[in-house]
Amino acid sequence: MQTLGNGHDWKLRMFSPVAEIHLDRLVRNYEKVQAQVGDTQVMPVVKADGYGHGAVPVTQALEKAGASFFGVFTMEEALELRRAGVEGKILTFECLNGDVLESALKKDITLNVSWHDQIELLSDFAVSEGNCPKVHLKVDTGMTRLGVLMDEVEKILDEFKSRPEIRLEGIYSHYSTSDEGDKSYADLQTERFTRVATLAEAAGLKTKYFHISNSGSVLDMPQSYFNLVRVGMILYGAYPSDETPESINLEPVMNFMGPIVQLKRVKAGTPVSYGSDYAPDSDAYIAVVQAGFADGMPRNWFKKGYVGYRGRNYPIAGRVCMDQFMVNFGDDEPAIGDHVLIFGDDGESRILIEEIARATDLTPYVLMTAIGGRTRRIYVEG
Ligand SMILES: Cc1ncc(COP(=O)(O)O)c(C=O)c1O
After folding, report:
1. DSSP assignments along 223-266, one per residue
2. Which of 72, 262, 343, 356 has the highest count of CB atoms within 10 angstroms of its CB?
3. Using only C-alpha atoms, what is the Rg of the chain?
4. Residues 64, 264, 274, 304: which is the catalytic one?
């Protein structure tokens, strides 16, 4: 696989922003998460195109590293993985609808059941087809998103018991505050979910998987693990929030970069970019970098932001545009075609996505999944 680095003759190449995806770092993060949760199975969450890292290569690398159950949101995302040859189990989180049943059965995709009327839909399908996709029941323990209500759980479990044609393989829920320092609400959700697991056992349901944990809770809530944890963010190498402990030493998987396409020497006071609200204090080299907010470059980062180049940080000059932004290099003269590091770790500079999230009042989730547009992904294995 191809790797980038400054000093290459980029004049010979097409200019575009680049997301360099370090699959070796991804695998090391996965191994550290697995070590943290011990015997509990880790389900990598690869929805939203692997949080902007490319679902197929990410899943293939993790499958090779031993992961065997993946979480996506839509059936289309699941089918993309199957088309690419992913053999592991796949669970979709989206609200169940009749259109996905046939594909789920044919491609062995596990579905999410999150409301009572879906049980009847599945039952009718199972009876007419003589077979049924596997399902996980989603219980709303406090997020107030998809999921059956706590006071309906007993009735719904009885319903599953009386319809053995439906293959109930798992029961799960989702935390709303596990990445916050105050764990009281997450603890309440754990308590509710434990009650659900007890009810399922009492009902005699042979449910294989119980899961509620995500990145935030994997870091500091061992009581949340049950027998499977669903993790996204920490696999990609960022902490979900400032309030979670850094109990696993993560490596950022993506280096997001943009090429320098033009350089000009300007006088002190020369206005730069839209609004003319930035001007260098002294004469400076201003570089134009080809990466804009349409590619995922965080627009508001320009106010305090900087990029890395050959181990030094240089301030972003003026507002980030749709396709480009400018950098104040002072008296340093960077080479056209070299890439600046926007976030990630290129061995010389390290700019964490968490820091940009803090400065722009966004989250690493928003920033990561925004990477796209004209960005070219390059995969690095070692
Ligand atoms: C249902 C579900 N499970 C697990 C995850 C993974 O969360 P995280 O990336 O915080 O680990 C998500 C992500 O939003 C999700 O929607």
Report:
1. GG-TTEEEE-TTTTT--S-TTS---S-----EEEEEEEEEEEEE
2. 343
3. 24
4. 274
**Nearest Cα residue to 81 out of 65, 92, 93:** 92
Report how far residue 296's alpha carbon sits from residue 123's, in angstroms, rounded to the nearest whole number. Answer: 43
Compute, in angstroms, the gap from residue 43 CA to the centroid of ligand 1: 10
Q: Distance between CA atoms of 132 and 118, rounded to whole angstroms?
A: 13
Q: How far apart are CA 139 and CA 144, in angstroms?
A: 10
The question of whether 89 is a catalytic residue gets the answer no
At 98, the amino acid letter reads G
**Residues 291-339: pLDDT tens digits?**
999 999 999 999 999 999 999 999 999 999 999 999 999 999 999 999 9
In this structure, the strands spanning 209-213 and 18-22 are unpaired
Strands 284-289 and 325-328: antiparallel
Beta bridge partners of 171: 137, 210
pTM exceeding the 0.85 threshold for the entire prediction:
yes
Domains of the chain, earliest start first: 10-19+252-380 (2.40.37.10), 23-231 (3.20.20.10)
Environment class of residue 269 by beta-carbon count within 10 Å: exposed (0-12), middle (13-18) or buried (19+)? Answer: exposed
Pocket-forming residues, ligand 1, beta carbon under 6 Å: 45, 71, 93, 174, 214-216, 230-233, 240
User: Is 267 considered catalytic here?
Assistant: no
Sequence-ordered alpha helix ranges (H) in the chain: 23-37, 47-52, 55-64, 75-83, 101-107, 117-129, 153-162, 184-202, 215-220, 353-360, 364-369
Going by C-alpha positions, the residue among 78, 129, 84, 76 that lies closest to residue 102 is: 129
Rounded-to-integer distance, Cα 217 and Cα 223, Å: 9
Residue having the nearest C-alpha atom to atom 13 of ligand 1: 232
Tokens of 268: 């002190």
Give me the residue label for tokens 């964490």. Answer: 352
